[in-house]
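TL;DR need structure tokens for one chain.
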Amino acid sequence: MYDVAIIGAGITGCSIAYELGKYNVNAVVIEKENDVAVGTTKANSAIIHGGYDPKPGSLMAKYNIRGNQYIKELCEKLDVPFKQIGALIVAFEEKEEKTLEDLKQRGEENGVPDMEIWDQEKLRKEEPNVSEKAIKALFSPNVGIISPWELAIALGEMAVENGVEFKLNTEVTDIKKNSDSYEIQTNNGTVEAKYICNAAGVNADKVNEYTNKKSFTIEPNKGEYYLLDKSQGELVNHVIFQCPNKDGKGVLVSPTVHGNLIVGPNSQPTDGDDVSTSTEGLSFVRNTAMKSVPGINFRESIRNFAGVRARTKEDDFFIFEDEENKGFFNISGMASPGLSSAPAIAVDLLKMMEESGLSLEAKKEVKDQRKVNRFKKLSDEERAALIKENPLYGKIICRCETVTEGEIVDAIHRPIPATSIDAVKRRCNAGMGRCQGGFCGPRVQEIISRELNIPLENVPQDRVGMNIITGETKTGGAK
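>> reply
TL;DR here they are.
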């Protein structure tokens, strides 16, 4: 029997697993997909928000501020790409100036440091490519950009290093409450645990209702994006927002930590698993973004994608222990700023579980440092030393992002192994460049097949069933 079972391996589940790994707790993460960070965590704006937007006194406000600080510490320790570049919320007409004042006041009440309102002259000086129609902007210097999937993977890997078990390809189908434990039914058998942390994202309400009364409803909301080539990556220096509205924080224009430009999202109700993009949705994103930055060259788009937010009507997180079934904790409604908040929520959740009876005895030794070899970022001397140690680092596989075979092999054999082409991409950026894997994808597939000793046709693009090879063509002889 496990002490704690975490359902869901997105940023929330991995954050909880990371914190539990510091204690003598027998914990397991149950994830229906073949990798961590496959849902909302891999498809969002990749922003660590400042905390000026949530309503004062809300859980969103509380954990956004704490998470903003904690994530900087985590990224430094775990070698995760992060840059604090600040954000600008831009006003285009006089009535929006009041919105900037309100956001500044709200941010100060929430504890956001050093916010300023810039006049048009200051704005144009700092952001020459922002529209001339912009008249003022609120500057929040504590906003950052991050690789969200790399943060989740890093937290998950550290959890594994510290003894937390991950059960991938394992979908929860039912939960039964016993006198002092829970029986979690899955497609791979039963998992028994004393405590449950429901971090199932857009499916959190369904998981909750397997054994508890209905207490919240997830209303999935889709956002569509453009990812543009590095030729557009320096078009703006900060995260550029428009004034928020009823649909959320609105369409942003932002650099990414990998040097690209991200533009989006829109906001529309959807089914929980619908990540399709549409001409209508992308046209809205494009037209809205050009109000902020007219010079965006959308011909340089290298990928469109969509992510699904786990929204609720209450516009706040649901973090609580079920009143009737003790030991069952919900961490749900993790829409924006869920990414920014998750690591801080995990810290408090452990306190809540301890108050509920979970014994938290700190381990004497905990692994809490991680280093990733990124060949592209190394000096010539460092590259030469690495190649001498392992010749596979001397073979470039992904030309767009300068990713070597050594990095790909490392990704495959990490504590949470990469078993798909996109899983490799999430760990070392192979296939993230201008050609989007058109050149390196088949080679990555071959390396995975070789390293895991599995047939080439069994290596998927991403999730199980996303097969690339379906059979042989043009063989030497007819069969």
